[in-house]
Amino acid sequence: MSLNVIMMGPPGAGKGTQALLFAEKCGLPKISTGDILREAVSEGTSLGLKAKAVIDSGELVDDVTMIGIVRERLLKADVAAGFVLDGFPRTVSQAKALDGIVEELKKDSLIVVAIEVPDEDLLRRMTTRRVCQGCGRNADPVEAKLLSCPKCGGDFSQRTDDNIQVIKERLKVYARDTAPLLDYYNGRQTFCLIDGTQSPGRVSEMLLEAIKAVSRADSAVRTEPGQRIERE
Ligand code: AMP
Q1: 50, 203, 223 from 19: Cα distances, Å
Q2: DSSP codes, 148-186
Q3: Pairing of strands 156-157, 131-132
Q4: Is any atom of ligand 1 closer than 6 Å to the C-beta of 111?
Q5: Which residues contact 217 (CB under 8 A, 6 or more apart)?
Q6: Residue 56: its pLDDT value, please?
Q7: Prediction pTM value
Q8: I want to staple 13 with a disulfide (CB 3.0 to 4.6 A). Which of 111, 115, 124, 154 is the partner?
Q9: How far from 128 is each of 11, 115, 131, CA to CA, in Å?
Q10: Which residues of the chain have pLDDT under 70?
Q11: What is the pLDDT of residue 66?
């Protein structure tokens, strides 16, 4: 059985970090649509040229483009045992298209993890976020004081969309276009909410427990949908 996970949450909730930790733990590919777009921007491809202005404004790249990118990626052989999607879907039409792709490619149920963090924490996290240009990891709070990544030596820098005006716009766009997805997925057996205000290590443990619980529930015992993992 494959493990097909979607990591949801507002910008700055820690989706990327958690998707990476979970993907590494389970030996699955992490597919980040934000990373795919940023790579296209740095390579100067036609997708990158189109995406740059959109990313820097805090808005979303159009659904048709994003659905095409994800469909193509999910056709690759390395997702046979599963995948961790970070940053997709971001709209109800993307979610509907993803359901269609899962059905078309005869994949196992999607496990939907939504990480919850209050807006004031998101603002603080994003304005202080530093990302390694080498390995793409976010610096932890100690590393963020350094100029370069202790793991790969790459330079730490700030994302072009991590400035206060764009962050506010991204939060607005999240509330308008992406938050409705919580209702879209809420009735599913495989939906779980995680308290993302804890340390990354603790969030990662809760997430692992929650994914185990919902996948067990999906394949055998039926439990309450929208299971909530509370802060300790
Ligand atoms: P992220 O790294 O996930 O925060 O994404 C950075 C930016 O890329 C977003 O603010 C959007 O402009 C764009 N983007 C990433 N994923 C998507 C998506 N699924 N749909 C539309 N735009 C996206």
Answers
A1: 26, 11, 25
A2: B-TTT-PBEE--TT-SHHHHHHHHHHIIIIITHHHHHHH
A3: antiparallel
A4: no
A5: 189, 190, 223, 227
A6: 94
A7: 0.88
A8: 115
A9: 13, 19, 10
A10: 220-232
A11: 98
Which residue's structure tokens are 């350094």? 146
The predicted structure's pLDDT at residue 228: 52
Count CB neighbours of 125 within 10 A.
19
Is residue 54 lining ligand 1, measured as CB closer than 6 Å?
yes
Cβ–ligand 1 distance for 92 under 6 Å, the answer no
SS3 5: strand
Residue 129 a catalytic site member: yes
How far does residue 113's CA lie from ligand 1's centre (Å)? 17
Q: What order of strands is seen across the sheet that includes strand 3-8? A: 30-32, 82-86, 3-8, 110-116, 191-195, 227-229
- Structure confidence at residue 101 (pLDDT): 97
Neighbours of 207 (CB within 10 A): 24
Instruction: Note the pLDDT of residue 16.
Output: 93
Select which of 90, 125, 130, 137 is catalytic.
Answer: 90
Report the candidate in 212, 214, 210 with the shortest Cα–Cα distance to residue 222.
214
Instruction: Write out pLDDT tens, residues 190-211.
Output: 999 999 999 999 999 999 999 9
Antiparallel, parallel or unpaired: β 191-195 and 227-229:
parallel
